[in-house]
Design brief:
Length: 390
């Protein structure tokens, strides 16, 4: 009997012990907690989880209402970091900016429409091999609807430059030797400018106009033959004045062989009101200047530099009027760019929202200027001329 009691007691003890082990496992004991914690912080899971991307920042778009100052509008726009050439600031006459709540991404762009005949979008600046280059601070896109006018020497409404910002503009080209020198200086400094070309000059050397376009510069117009449109016969004959303007537009467009900007500068900055109104109907923007360097009166490069730097120091910023027609200017430009960099100036580049449209009537007038044009010369040069031995 005693043996039976001992056996029963032993069996009960073993059963209770087994029950305790099972209960501990089912209740999530220490071993279970460690296993689950290890799973949460598993390096495998951490490295395969996609990181959260930062929200995109929509490009700043600035709309100008009549009477508004761009500098005031931009001052109230929160900055999303340094401006880049690939994100142009838009100067729009008739646009309303679309507000995007902070922290949200901009909506995905719609499928691109046909861009035939439109200027290419502003591209990000290529890597610059010159660590001392002046560079390019920002790009502004000009909406030329209605023919807005720029340049504080005559027009105060659209003063879009910030302190220490400079816009380079060059008149009267293209011209042999000088224009390539100017392009080289700009390229060496990884910066850009706007060229107001004379139509007749462009027909003489269309290869130079093409070089300006290929360098990524903006090309506008400076009439057909640089006539003062405020004097006779143009002052009393608006049709003749229109012809001087429109033949210039057509000639530069033909020379470039592609889109050019609807940007216009009057010779000698003489701007008859009736012609300004006409340019408005053509949606061509008018450019005066902020700072006239008077480089066309200067023969020494060092004096060109002194003129530009002295006037900039006084104004603090400005659109510079210079001439790639002038050899002293071409010689002065590398040192001028170096001094601007040392003084903390930054360059702004202007591009058009849409290209200029030429008028067939004036296209034909330009073609008629070529006394040696021939219907025999219609094939491309590559199909007519081939190097067969060197």
């Amino acid at each position: 009997m005693r043996v039976v009691v001992v056996v029963i007691t032993a069996l009960l003890t073993l059963g209770l012990a087994a029950f305790g082990v099972v209960a501990t496992q089912n209740s999530g004991g220490p071993a279970s907690l460690v296993a689950r914690a290890a799973h949460v912080i598993s390096p495998t899971q951490a490295t395969t989880t996609a990181p959260m991307s930062a929200p995109e920042v929509a490009p700043t778009r600035i709309a100008l209402a009549p009477g508004a100052q761009l500098s005031d509008a931009s001052a109230t726009t929160p900055s999303a970091g340094p401006a880049t050439p690939s994100t142009p600031t838009v100067l729009a006459q008739n646009a309303t900016p679309a507000a995007i709540p902070t922290g949200l991404s901009a909506p995905a762009p719609a499928p691109a429409a046909s861009t035939a005949g439109t200027p290419p979008p502003a591209k990000a600046a290529a890597a610059c091999n010159n660590p001392d280059a002046l560079g390019l601070s920002r790009v502004v896109e000009i909406d030329t609807t209605g023919g807005p006018a720029f340049g504080t020497e005559h027009f105060k409404q659209y003063d879009f430059l910030r302190d220490k910002e400079v816009v380079f503009t060059f008149d009267d080209g293209p011209w042999p030797d000088n224009t390539p020198m100017v392009l080289k200086a700009l390229a060496d400094n990884c910066t850009k400018a706007t060229f107001f070309e004379i139509g007749e000059h462009a027909t003489w050397r269309p290869d130079l106009s093409k070089l300006v376009a290929e360098a990524g510069m903006t090309i506008g117009n400076h009439t057909w033959s640089h006539k003062d449109l405020a004097k006779k016969p143009y002052a009393s004959d608006i049709e003749q004045a229109k012809q001087e303007i429109e033949m210039g537009v057509s000639a530069v467009h033909m020379a470039v062989g592609g889109p050019v900007a609807p940007f216009f500068r009057f010779p000698d900055l003489q701007m008859p009101p009736d012609l300004m109104a006409y340019l408005g109907t053509r949606n061509i923007a008018i450019f005066s200047t902020d700072i006239d360097t008077f480089d066309f009166k200067i023969r020494k490069p060092e004096d060109v530099i002194k003129s530009a730097m002295t006037k900039l120091a006084k104004a603090g910023k400005g659109m510079l009027l210079m001439h790639d027609f002038q050899h002293a200017t071409a010689e002065a430009l590398p040192e001028l760019l170096r001094q601007l960099k040392a003084a903390g100036y930054k360059v702004v580049h202007m591009v058009p929202k849409q290209p200029v449209t030429t008028l067939a009537k004036y296209d034909d007038m330009v073609r008629a200027q070529d006394k040696y044009s021939s219907s025999n010369n219609t094939r491309p040069e590559s199909s007519v001329i081939k190097t067969i031995s060197e």
